[in-house]
C-alpha cells in the first residue's frame, strides 16, 4: 500500500484544461477555486496484502480490503461508504486506490490515478506486486515529486525523469544546474519536453491502434459495431521539433459537420496536451511539439462506417438429446495482401458436453472441458480467404432438463496495416531550426480482444429450455 497525506487536485495543476468546467466544481477564468481532496493514494494487492505502506489511517485500507478486495461482486470503480469515497483502478494483481471525503470530480481523480500508473510503467515497465516491492524507493520519490505539499503539480514523465533516476548521485554543482533547468522546463510553455534532447538518428514512429467491438444477433443482424482507437507515438527527435500530422481528407468530428457516406467519422476525440487544438479545429491538422519518447497523441471512437475484418457464419444443430453439431465459417473482409494473425474462436458447448470431435482444414481446434467450449486457433488467415470448422459435441444423458444459455462465439484477432474506422495518416512532417533529416514510420493495427461476438442460433430437434 502506498499512501500520501493529502492531494488537492485541480484541473489546471494537472494540465487538464478540458475538465476545468466539469463536475461539481465551478471554474474561475484564472484558477479553479474548489479542491478535490484525495486523502489517501495507495496500492493494494489482489491477494489482500499491502504491497507497500505509509499508513496514516489504517482503517481506510481495511475498509477497502473488506468491501472491494474480499468482495467478488464489485461492479463500480467508485464506492461511497458514509462520507468517504473510494476510487479504484485495477491493474494486473494490484488496485490503485484514491480516497476522498469531498464531492470530488471523478474524472480528475481517475485521470490522476492513470497518470500515476503510466509514470510507474515508464520507470520500471510492467506494474505488479513484485515490481512495486522492488522499486518502492522510486515510487516514494515519484509521489513526493508529483505532489508538492499534497498538491499535484507535475505529472510529465519527461520532466520527472530529469531528476528522479536510478543512476549514481551527481555532484552538488551539477545538481544545482540541472535543478535550474528543470524549474525552467516545468514552468515553461513546453513543460513536457526538455530543450537539450539530442539523437544521432532522428526518428518518429506512429502506431494507429484500433480495437473493434462487435455484437451480431443470431439472425445475422448487426446489434453493435464500433471502434476504440488511439494513436501512439514514439518521438526520438533532437532539439524542440514542430510536428504536423495530417489525417483523412473526408474527416467528420463528433458528427457536427455534414459528411458524405464514405467519410471517416470520429467521436469523443481526446488529445495530448501538446496538441494545438485551434489548428486542428481550423485545418484538421494536428500540430504539436512532442514529448521525448513514447506517448499517446490521440484517443477516439468511431461508430459509423465500421469495416469488420472478419465475418463469422455459425450453424448449430441439436441432434436429439445426445449431440450438437457445429459448422462455423470464417471469412476475411480485407485485401488479399493483408493477413489476420493470432485468430482465436471460442465456441460454447452445452453444459452436459462430455467430448467434442473437431475437424478443420486451417489451424487447430480442440475441446476444452475446463472452459466448456471448443477453441479454434488459426496462426494466419490471408485476406479473401475462407475456412470452416465442423464439430460434433457428445452430450451425457440427464434426468433433468439442462438449461443452456447459448453464449455467443467470441473471436480474437490482429490485422496489421488495416483500420476498421478507415482512419489513415496522410502525412507526418517534422520541422526543427537545425533543419535535420528525420525518418518517419507509420503502422496500423486492428485487433479484437474479447469484444467481437456473434450470437448462436440453434436449430433444435430437442430444445434444452
TrEMBL record:
Residues in MHD domain copies: 201-455
GO cellular component: clathrin adaptor complex; clathrin-coated pit; plasma membrane
InterPro entries noted in UniProt: Adaptor_comp_med_subunit (IPR050431), AP2_Mu_C_sf (IPR036168), AP2_Mu_N (IPR043532), Clathrin_mu (IPR001392), Clathrin_mu_CS (IPR018240), Longin-like_dom_sf (IPR011012), MHD (IPR028565), Mu2_C (IPR043512)
Pfam families: Adap_comp_sub
Membrane topology of this protein: Peripheral membrane protein
Magnesium among keywords: no
The keyword Cell membrane is annotated on this UniProt entry: yes
SUPFAM superfamilies for this protein: Second domain of Mu2 adaptin subunit (ap50) of ap2 adaptor, SNARE-like
Keywords from the UniProt entry: Cell membrane, Coated pit, Endocytosis, Membrane, Protein transport, Transport
Compartments in which it is found: Cell membrane; Membrane, Coated pit
Any one GO BP annotation for this protein: intracellular protein transport
Gene3D superfamilies: 3.30.450.60, Mu homology domain, subdomain B
Cross-referenced PANTHER family: AP COMPLEX SUBUNIT MU (PTHR10529)
Family: Belongs to the adaptor complexes medium subunit family.
This protein's name: MHD domain-containing protein
Organism whose genome encodes this protein: Psilocybe cyanescens
Native organism taxonomy: Eukaryota, Fungi, Dikarya, Basidiomycota, Agaricomycotina
Amino acid at each position: 500500500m502506498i499512501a500520501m497525506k493529502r492531494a488537492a487536485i485541480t484541473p489546471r495543476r494537472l494540465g487538464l484544461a478540458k475538465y476545468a468546467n466539469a463536475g461539481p466544481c465551478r471554474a474561475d477564468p484564472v484558477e479553479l477555486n474548489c479542491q478535490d481532496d484525495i486523502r489517501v493514494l495507495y496500492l493494494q494487492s489482489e491477494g489482500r496484502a499491502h504491497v507497500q505502506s505509509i499508513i496514516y489511517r489504517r482503517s481506510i485500507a481495511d475498509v477497502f480490503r473488506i468491501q472491494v478486495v474480499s468482495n467478488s461482486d464489485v461492479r463500480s470503480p467508485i464506492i461511497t461508504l458514509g462520507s468517504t469515497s473510494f476510487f479504484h483502478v485495477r491493474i494486473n494483481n494490484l488496485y490503485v486506490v484514491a480516497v476522498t471525503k469531498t464531492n470530488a470530480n471523478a474524472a480528475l481523480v481517475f485521470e490522476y490515478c492513470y497518470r500515476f500508473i503510466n509514470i510507474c510503467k515508464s520507470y520500471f515497465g510492467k506494474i505488479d506486486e513484485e515490481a512495486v516491492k522492488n522499486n518502492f524507493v522510486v515510487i516514494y520519490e515519484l509521489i513526493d515529486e508529483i505532489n508538492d505539499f499534497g498538491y499535484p503539480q507535475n505529472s510529465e514523465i519527461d520532466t520527472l525523469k530529469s531528476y528522479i533516476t536510478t543512476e549514481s548521485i551527481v555532484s552538488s554543482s551539477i545538481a544545482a544546474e540541472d535543478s535550474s533547468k528543470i524549474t525552467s522546463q516545468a514552468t515553461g510553455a513546453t513543460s513536457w519536453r526538455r530543450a537539450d534532447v539530442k539523437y544521432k538518428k532522428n526518428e518518429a514512429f506512429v502506431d494507429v491502434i484500433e480495437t473493434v467491438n462487435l455484437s451480431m444477433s443470431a439472425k445475422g443482424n448487426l446489434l453493435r459495431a464500433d471502434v476504440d482507437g488511439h494513436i501512439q507515438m514514439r518521438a526520438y527527435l533532437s532539439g524542440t521539433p514542430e510536428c504536423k500530422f495530417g489525417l483523412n481528407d473526408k474527416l467528420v468530428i463528433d458528427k457536427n459537420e455534414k459528411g458524405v457516406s464514405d467519410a471517416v467519422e470520429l467521436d469523443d476525440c481526446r488529445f495530448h496536451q501538446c496538441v494545438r487544438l485551434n489548428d486542428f479545429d481550423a485545418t484538421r491538422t494536428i500540430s504539436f511539439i512532442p514529448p521525448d519518447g513514447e506517448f499517446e497523441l490521440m484517443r477516439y471512437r468511431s461508430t459509423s462506417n465500421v469495416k469488420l475484418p472478419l465475418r463469422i457464419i455459425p450453424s448449430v444443430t441439436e441432434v436429439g438429446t445426445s449431440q450438437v453439431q457445429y459448422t462455423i465459417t470464417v471469412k476475411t473482409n480485407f485485401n488479399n495482401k493483408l493477413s489476420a494473425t493470432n485468430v482465436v474462436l471460442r465456441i460454447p458447448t452445452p453444459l452436459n458436453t462430455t467430448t467434442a470431435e473437431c475437424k478443420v482444414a486451417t489451424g487447430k481446434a480442440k475441446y476444452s472441458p475446463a472452459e466448456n467450449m471448443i477453441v479454434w486457433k488459426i496462426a494466419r488467415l490471408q485476406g479473401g480467404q475462407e475456412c470452416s470448422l465442423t464439430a460434433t459435441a457428445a452430450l451425457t444423458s440427464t434426468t433433468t432438463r439442462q438449461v443452456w444459455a447459448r453464449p455467443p462465439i467470441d473471436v480474437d484477432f490482429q490485422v496489421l496495416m488495416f483500420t476498421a474506422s478507415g482512419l489513415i495518416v496522410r502525412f507526418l512532417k517534422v520541422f526543427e531550426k537545425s533543419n535535420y533529416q528525420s525518418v518517419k514510420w507509420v503502422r496500423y493495427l486492428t485487433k479484437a480482444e474479447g469484444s467481437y461476438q456473434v450470437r448462436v442460433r440453434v436449430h433444435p430437434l430437442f430444445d434444452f429450455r
